[in-house]
Specification:
Layout: H1 20-31, H2 35-46, H3 50-77, H4 84-92, H5 94-128, H6 135-152, H7 154-181, H8 202-217, H9 233-262, H10 265-270, H11 274-283, H12 285-319, H13 338-352, H14 362-365, H15 376-388, E1 400-402, E2 411-413, H16 429-449, H17 462-474, H18 489-501, H19 506-531, H20 533-544, H21 547-553, H22 559-578, H23 583-600, H24 605-615, H25 619-641, H26 651-657, H27 663-667, H28 673-679, H29 681-684, H30 690-707, H31 709-724, H32 743-748, E3 750-752, E4 755-757, H33 759-773, H34 778-793, H35 798-801, H36 805-822, H37 825-843, H38 855-867, H39 871-884, H40 889-901, H41 905-918, H42 923-935, H43 939-952, H44 957-967
Antiparallel strand pairs: 1-2, 3-4
Helix pairs in contact: 1-7, 1-9, 1-12, 2-8, 3-8, 3-9, 4-5, 5-6, 5-12, 5-13, 6-7, 6-12, 6-13, 7-9, 7-12, 11-12, 12-13, 16-19, 16-20, 17-18, 19-20, 19-22, 19-36, 20-36, 22-23, 22-24, 23-24, 23-25, 24-25, 24-34, 26-30, 30-31, 31-34, 33-36, 33-37, 38-39, 39-40, 40-41, 40-42, 41-42, ...
Length: 988
């Protein structure tokens, strides 16, 4: 709803809804743009010694902090919308404030937005390979898009700023970590370095050096413009301004140290694009493109910060009557100064059409010879640089020759044995340790944040099943199932942790964080073995920062252990082909790992088939290892249950859930009485035993496929779409609400109209990469296709799909590398068209993110709290479940039981009646209602209810006993004993 314009002199009706993190993100995002990637070049030209250059950066930061201290004091005193405009008005009056406001409106903000957008456009076009003529449209589109985002609301604008600022800071720190930890090449052959010094006297040189430094630090005033919208400004304003500035100082100093650790002072003074040259030295040509992406993200965030803060000055000026009063209009529903935003957007677009100083020629291509080289000599030099970084030292000597029979002048190493391909170099141990540390840190932060969730110490549904079984095993009672219902591997894994670390819920999640970080390292190793070191590291970091993997590492569920075992099996298989002398041992170990993965998640067994084809004559060794891993589970089922069930007996029912004419209904069956009634269907049909029950459901699924092949085919197409869709489909428990507790998930797992991140982006890239690179990594391609087919055979949920992520990340990285470097024009266009089509398929119509937990999880949490005696908390959860689904019969039943035990029989009666209204076949509601009728003395009504309950659930022993009691003939009342006659009494 739109609000009226503010009367002159009034305060704009803006809500205080910008928190500390968002305010800090505005400060940091406004400061860090493109300066840190270019300004060190100008500083190094004046100050030739690294120590003096670093001192200048520190001094610039100290002076910025002094300004921040003064600004923080003003911000606390005048915490109103308008920032510097308000401070000038309060200090010097309306005249100077008017001059500043008009300058900000007409000159400062529009030109700043337009100039930074032009830098963004340059690097964006370089990153995605667009021609130079499209840069204007990219900049124009960036301004339009971010203006629209800020028009949607303050939360949308600040949320975008938070994501972009966090991304840019992490990206810069990743650049620094790479500079410190990864080996790097020297200067390219033939590169000429300019003189590093301009010959000014020291003090004058120091003063000149401070100019680009102050330019890089500019922007710490911007968060004051939203002063009227900061929550708790007395506390948050100083932290946002000072803390943000301190963070930028640290980032800038660390970044300069990183530059000097890779480049010499003369090289920094020579290469204007210092950041790009540093990345090129570390990662080769990929580094230049990675830096282009980082600069594009950084400047995009700075543009958003300017668009977010600029209209607040116009709004405040209009509210004071110093500008067109309509510009003080505020959309009350969205909390945005919409008219001021439109005005600023129009002026910024006008400014973007004005000529701007062109970026140096070395900005997009680093310097001559650093781009994509197509000649043989450049290719030789590039290969030489790579060999220098392969772990053998930059000075290792080797011979190369061109193979005239190989297209495009591919290179072979002299002396390579015929018939055996050279093994690609694996990432260095240092790079893998850095990857492991990053992945582990992300997961530890997530796990610690999730402790605020009530589900952290109260696992529900499947997690509760695993937890209960693990506690029974750790206590020495063994697994509670006579024949395993679910694959038992994860329960035994949890039991081992409980027996070592105690019964707490933090230890298993820390263990899973370590496994998740190990999976990132395995992904990098497998990717490097298949496609090269750069692809491997890119895929490894993709896995390290993949939101759904981080989420499952914090849940007591199977994906973390499954993925680690699957990747270990694949890595051992790749090693087996490279080490003939240990081939048998490695293939057997690979089979053992995939067998253990199958004991955790049964569909993993299909990977054994793919590995067996790859193993060829050693397939029997692999299959023997797989059988040895599964054999103890099979023997235990046979010994305790007397039936031959290889792993678990839920395979048949899962097959039926995913292949029946009522797919949506069966997938959504509630995890209580409905599920119990569903599972007991074979028993009602007279079938006894776990194996026959599984076969019963499997036969029903096959019968459906045979009787309705067209409907079955439509269902498979629907499941394929669900498998490719970006939305994360829950199984009993919603996923997206966990974002409210975890800042990691807020950054790495989200949905906006047109993109469900991250799978909506990974899927099209991964499939495109699989299409172009699958032949060069047949094992990985076979595993992806086999496991995807296994998931499709059952039903689609995020938990079952997520093991595909690491291999899709590898194919995504290779596909991007191929598209940027090797693809011909026609192939590039075709692959891009295919990826866009898949992107649209996976992202359009995916719906919003659920903000709250679903009714099933709320109900299950309530039942757990009730068992622990926390009755009031349980009641709250039952009401929450009913608020989301008023026909949740089981929640009504539990509320009725609680009310009846408290003596509120009337409320209990109504609750049981509500349960029956929602589900007339709810035997438990009938039994409990019969108890109330019996206590009220209405035996006939109670008997009728008991009989209905027994007809629905013949296993209900309570109903059976009560029916027998109420139908029995009543016993005659006991007669009073005869009394002897009394002798007559005498008269007194």
């Amino acid at each position: 709803m739109a609000g009226p314009a503010v009367s002159p002199g009034g305060e704009p009706p803006l809500k205080r809804q910008i928190g500390l993190y968002a305010a800090t993100a505005i400060t940091v995002g406004s400061i860090i743009g493109s300066g840190i990637f270019r300004s060190p070049h100008s500083v190094a030209q004046e100050l030739t010694r690294p120590g003096w250059a670093l001192l200048a950066w520190v001094l610039g930061g100290v002076l910025s902090l002094c300004g921040s201290l003064a600004l923080a004091e003003m911000a606390v005193t005048h915490s109103r919308t308008g920032g510097l405009y308000v401070f000038i008005r309060e200090s010097f009056g309306n005249r100077l404030a008017f001059i500043f406001g008009w300058a900000s409106l007409w000159v400062i903000k529009p030109t700043v937005i337009a100039s930074i957008a032009s830098v963004f456009a340059t690097y964006f076009c370089q990153a995605v390979g667009l021609p130079k003529g499209t840069e204007f449209f990219a900049g124009f589109g960036a301004i339009a898009l971010l203006t629209f985002v800020n028009l949607l609301g303050v939360k949308q604008g600040t949320g975008t700023q938070t994501v972009l600022t966090t991304t840019k800071v992490l990206g810069i720190l990743a650049l620094c970590a790479a500079a410190f930890l990864l080996p790097h090449a020297g200067a390219p052959a033939g590169a000429s370095l300019a003189g590093p010094s301009r010959g000014h006297p020291f003090l004058l040189a120091f003063a000149f050096a401070m100019i680009p430094i102050f330019f890089a630090y500019d922007g710490w005033t911007d968060s004051t413009y939203v002063g009227g919208e900061i929550v708790n400004p007395v506390r948050n304003f100083p932290i946002a301004i000072l803390g943000g500035t301190v963070l930028v100082v640290l980032v800038y100093v660390i970044t300069n140290v990183a530059y000097y650790s890779v480049l010499s002072p003369g090289e920094i003074a020579s290469y204007e694009a210092v950041g790009a040259e540093t990345m090129r030295r570390i990662l080769g040509d990929w580094g230049g493109r990675a830096l282009a992406v980082l600069v594009a993200v950084s400047t995009f965030g700075t543009v958003n910060a300017s668009i977010l803060t600029g209209p607040r000055v116009t709004l405040a000026m209009a509210a004071d009557g110093l500008f067109w009063k309509r510009a003080a209009h505020v959309n009350v529903e969205r909390g945005t100064p919409d008219v001021a935003l439109w005005i600023q957007g129009a002026l910024a677009h006008r400014a973007s059409r004005l000529p701007h100083p062109a970026l140096p020629a070395d900005a997009p291509r680093l310097h001559p010879g650093h781009g994509r080289d197509r000649g043989e000599r450049s290719q030789l030099e590039r290969m030489a640089r790579r060999r220098g970084r392969s772990g053998r030292g930059a000075g290792a000597s080797f011979l190369l020759h061109l193979d005239s029979k190989t297209p495009r002048g591919r290179l072979k190493r002299a002396g390579t044995l015929p018939g055996r391909a050279k093994t690609p170099a694996a990432p260095s141990s240092r790079s893998l340790w850095v990857l492991f540390a990053v992945a582990l840190l992300v997961r530890i932060v997530h796990v610690l944040a999730m402790r605020a969730s009530p589900f952290f110490t109260n696992p529900v549904i499947d997690a509760a099943t695993y937890d209960d079984a693990a506690r029974a095993i750790a206590a020495g009672h063994g697994h509670p199932d006579v024949i395993f219902w679910q694959p038992p591997g994860y329960s035994y894994f949890l039991a081992f942790i409980y027996s070592v670390a105690g019964p707490g819920y933090l230890a298993p999640r820390i263990a899973q964080a370590l496994l998740g970080a190990g999976s990132a390292v395995l992904t990098a190793w497998i990717g490097a073995r298949s496609f090269g070191r750069g692809v491997g590291l890119f895929a490894g970091y993709g896995v390290a920062l993949y939101g759904m993997l981080v989420y499952y590492d914090g849940e007591l569920l199977t994906p973390t252990l499954t993925i680690a075992l699957q990747l270990a099996a694949i890595a051992l298989a790749l090693m087996a082909r490279e080490h003939p002398r240990r081939e048998g041992l490695l293939w057997g170990s690979s089979g053992l790992c995939i067998g253990l993965a199958s004991v955790v998640t049964a569909p993993s067994l299909v990977i054994a088939a793919a590995l067996a084809v790859y193993a060829r004559r050693r397939a029997w060794v692999l299959l023997l290892g797989t059988a040895l891993a599964i054999l103890p589970v099979t023997l235990r089922n046979l010994n305790r249950g007397g039936e031959f069930v290889p792993i678990s007996w839920n395979a048949g029912i899962n097959l039926y859930i995913g292949n029946n004419p009522r797919y949506d209904e069966t997938v959504a069956i509630r995890p209580d009485l409905q599920w119990k009634y569903f599972v007991q269907e074979p028993r009602r049909a007279g079938i006894r035993g776990a194996g026959p029950a599984s076969s019963y459901f499997a036969a029903r699924a096959l019968s459906y496929a045979a009787s309705d092949p067209l409907g079955f085919a439509r269902l498979q197409a629907k499941k394929l779409y669900l498998l490719l869709a970006g939305n994360e489909i829950p199984r009993n428990q919603e996923i997206y609400p966990a974002r409210s507790y975890s800042p990691v998930l807020r950054l790495l797992l989200w949905k906006i109209p047109g993109l469900a991140f991250p799978f909506g982006l990974l899927m099209p890239l991964g499939i495109a990469g699989l299409a172009v690179a699958g032949r060069r990594a047949p094992l990985l391609a076979a595993v992806v296709l086999a496991y995807a087919a296994a998931v499709l055979a059952f039903f689609i949920t995020a938990r079952y799909r997520v093991p595909l992520v690491p291999l899709l990340a590898i194919f995504s990285a290779e596909g991007v590398r191929w598209w940027l470097r090797d693809a011909k024009l026609l192939a590039r266009a075709a692959s891009l068209a295919g990826a866009i089509a898949l992107f649209l398929l996976g992202n359009l119509g995916q719906g919003p993110m659920p903000r709250e937990m679903n009714a099933d999880a709320e109900y299950s949490l309530g039942t757990r709290l009730l068992r622990e005696g926390r009755v009031e908390e349980a009641i709250e959860r039952f009401h929450s479940a009913l608020g989301k689904n008023s026909r949740y019969a089981e929640a009504w039943v539990n509320l009725g039981v609680i009310e009846a035990t408290r003596g509120a029989t009337g409320e209990a009666d109504r609750s049981f009646q509500s349960a029956l209204l929602a589900d007339p076949e709810n035997a438990l509601a009938l039994t409990n209602l019969a108890v109330l009728r019996e206590k009220a003395g209405d035996g006939s009504a109670a008997l009728a209810l008991y009989e209905r309950a027994l007809a629905i659930d013949p296993t209900d022993e309570t109903a059976r006993r009560k029916v027998a009691e109420l139908k029995a003939p009543p016993e005659p009342p006991p007669q009073a004993p005869l009394q002897d006659p009394q002798p007559p009494r005498s008269k007194p």
